[in-house]
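Exercise: predict the fold of this chain.
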Amino acid sequence: MSELNDAIVKAVDRLGDELEQLSHRIHANPELGYQEVKAAGWLTEFLERHGFAVERGVAGVETAFRATLAMGDGPTIAILCEYDALPQIGHACGHN
């Protein structure tokens, strides 16, 4: 498992700058739940650029997607994202 952990750490390190820029881009453009069209587009473009097969409109939800990267035998990793803004609050949890 150590070899897998090393590979994950290297991938995150390699993509760190791009992931941070993507995070800032999503944060700077808040969208309400089920209206995250820009964010979903940017995320799916990023994933496709890095070899993932992307299925859009999952479960009949326009902004839902599933991205798959088949690498053969090994563990399956799932990442679930929640990044919609709250009405009249934006991205914040209510702190002033």
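Check your answer against the key: The first strand starts at residue 53 and ends at 56.
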